[in-house]
TrEMBL record:
GO terms for molecular function: beta-N-acetylhexosaminidase activity. It comes from Trichococcus ilyis. It catalyses: Hydrolysis of terminal non-reducing N-acetyl-D-hexosamine residues in N-acetyl-beta-D-hexosaminides. Its EC number is 3.2.1.52. Residues 27-347 form the Glycoside hydrolase family 3 N-terminal domain. Keywords: Glycosidase, Hydrolase. Belongs to the glycosyl hydrolase 3 family. The keyword Cytoplasm does not apply. It comes from the Bacteria. This is beta-N-acetylhexosaminidase. It holds the Pfam family Glyco_hydro_3. InterPro entries: GH (IPR017853), Glyco_hydro_3_C_sf (IPR036881), Glyco_hydro_3_N (IPR001764), Glyco_hydro_3_N_sf (IPR036962), NagZ_Beta-hexosaminidase (IPR050226).
Amino acid sequence: MVRLTEKPFFLSDKEIAWVENTLSEMTMEEKIGQVFCPIAGNPEDQALTEFVQKYQPGGMMFRPMPAQAIRQAHGVLQKESKIPLLLAANLEAGGNGICSDGTYYARPMGVAATADKQEAYRLGHVSGREANAVGCNWAFSPIVDIDLNFKNPITNVRTFGSDLDCVIDFSLQQMKGLNENGIATAVKHFPGDGVDERDQHLVSSVNSLSVPEWDESYGKVYQAMIEAGTLSVMIGHILQPAYSKALNPALADKDILPASLAPELINGLLRDRLGFNGVAVTDATPMIGYNAAMSRKKAIPATLNAGCDMILFNKNIDEDYQALRDAVNSGEVSAERLDEAVTRILAMKASMGLVAKQQTDSLVPAAEALDIVGCPEHLDLARKSAEKAITLVKDTQNLLPISPEKTPRVRVYMLEDRASGGFKDGGTSEDVFIDKLKAAGFSVEKYNYGQLNFHEIFEAGVDDLKAEVDLAVYVANYDTASNQTTRRIDWIRLMAADAPWFVQDIPTVFVSLANPYHLFDAPMVKTYINGYSANDMVADVIVDKLIGKSAFEGKSPVDPFCGVWGTNL
């Protein structure tokens, strides 16, 4: 039963009447549409019009596009939709989660490294303000995962770190900043990522904590977010075997399923034990972690029966609609269960004020609102945040600050500095480092991966290198992104020729723009810096700090030494 007058909805009598009347007038086909939140492909007006008229979805999501284009598309969608749409975005690191020209504020771990909770509020505020300007109203954030396993390739800098109190406090502030700008939150990824070292995009990953361990960690995080009023929770394709067995002792190991298919985790743990009354939405269902667990045509209705109210994305949208249609017609999914899911979705929309906005034609703000997208004010806030976040993890050789007087000839090694899919945010930062070091008076050469030869790898020694190089600067841009098995350093296969074999003879600095755990693979480096957010602005600030223009202020939200002996030396 959905409690419409209670948290998180708190609906008025008028809003309840709208929910009940709307539900009573809907056809089964319209109800099925509300359960789905597809990803948008073609942004052209005609294509969007035809899509909404055919499928009547409850929500939609675009990948980032220019602000003007995304505003136009959102306007068409809302105009053509009988019931206001939830328009979603991954507002994890700034307005760039919806607008390609939006502000990349900072990755959550970078925000946590400032040790200032107000920075988490500003992250939410900037993200929410820019998203609202283009008509977005639903954030798939905050990420409330705990980065307990440094080898996990998908949590990493997307989290607020490994400290429970930090994750709770900073997530609450980010949610506040989003909510104040009219953006509802979907905290993610229940029952909690960051324990396994695998990515649920690729496998059904496992939260292997015991029941008491879960209660004292992820349980406290979700309890705090529920008490603070999050309207939705995103359900991951993540198993929690201990709780599944505790709540359903008859379950055999082979029958334990990811949370998105597990009624004991959604209805039992999230709703009954934690008291969540809002919308449960799956993580993206094209993920292998979802599809490998059950035949898709069975999984779609099973997801609804497990307690999820909304299904995110599709493989084949017609197949998915038909699978749910067949399940409702056969009674596999009861009419009551479908109505319950749709009631929650309608209640969420009413609670967000979308119905009132639809009546005043203000679901998408006027074009003038676009002025704040990527505006100087937001970019200035982001730079100030970076100034406080960038962390000097160690400088045991007392090398810093560097100067052209001490080490005039610099060789820069760029590691993984490429835009390579996986919805990577920051692009490349090679030019920023090289140009800024040159401007500071250094003679800079880039390590040339295209001209490796036998002599350099097998014959050139320390003296040969010293004749050319006074300082080696490594810049790693292994940015956290989906569908990757690891984000560790991948040295050149031939004798690891680009690794710092010369570290005892040539002063060496290692800068990580993203992944904070590279000391695991480069423990020999004596000077190491974490930037957390792989973008040009952070790269620019790091060079300022390298040359002594500003001090390092950041405090690591995780153990950058990875619990491994010698990495701190």
